[in-house]
Amino acid sequence: MDVMQLPRTNILAYTLPGFGTTERTLQQARRLMQTVGASAHEIDIRDACMQMFRNIGHPYATGKPVFDTSFENVQAGERTSHLFRLANLHGALVVGTGDLSELAHQARQQLDSLGATNTRIVLSGDLDEWAVAALASAQADAVRRPGPRSDAAS
């Protein structure tokens, strides 16, 4: 944004806290958005997830502490849905930081259930919070177009 002489507020940043979001994680997301100078937004996804739990008949909807793959995927799916609809609305694209952490969590559950508790999971190829923070001084190759676009993918 700096190279293109555009305000960093053109970066639309969202944090989407859910059931497992700690106060520490939420504060880090807020600080990151502030440090970058992005337009910061927060959408709590818990109500939307509860609706999905009710819709699919997941035990968590009735108060049972069931934290299975469906529980995790409802939250991941809700985040993805929100982000892509927001991108459509604003003629933007989605750059996420959490995809690999959610995949790692699911892989760890599967490995542990198979008795492979010593198997390591190595993540690469995704943006983590430190990489995003480094982008604050990096060159950008895209510009956010204000307003809705009719040709945006869903």
Annotated CATH homologous superfamily of the domain at 8-96 and 127-137: HUPs
- Tally of separate helices: 5
> Could you tell me how far the N terminus lies from the C terminus, measured between alpha carbons in angstroms?
25 Å
Shape: globular
Assembly status: single chain
Mean pLDDT: 77
Spans of 5+ residues with little confidence (pLDDT < 50)? 123-128, 138-154
Q: Secondary-structure element order, as H and E?
A: EHEHHHH
Number of strands: 2
What is the CATH architecture annotation of the domain at 8-96 and 127-137? 3-Layer(aba) Sandwich
CATH topology of the domain at 8-96 and 127-137: Rossmann fold
Give the proportion of residues in helices.
40-55%
For the report, how would you describe the main beta sheet? Answer: 2 strands, parallel
SSE-based structural type: mainly alpha
Computed CA radius of gyration, to the nearest angstrom: 18 Å
Taken as a percent bin, the fraction of beta residues is: 5-15%
CATH class of the domain at 8-96 and 127-137: Alpha Beta
Largest sheet: spatial strand order: 1-2
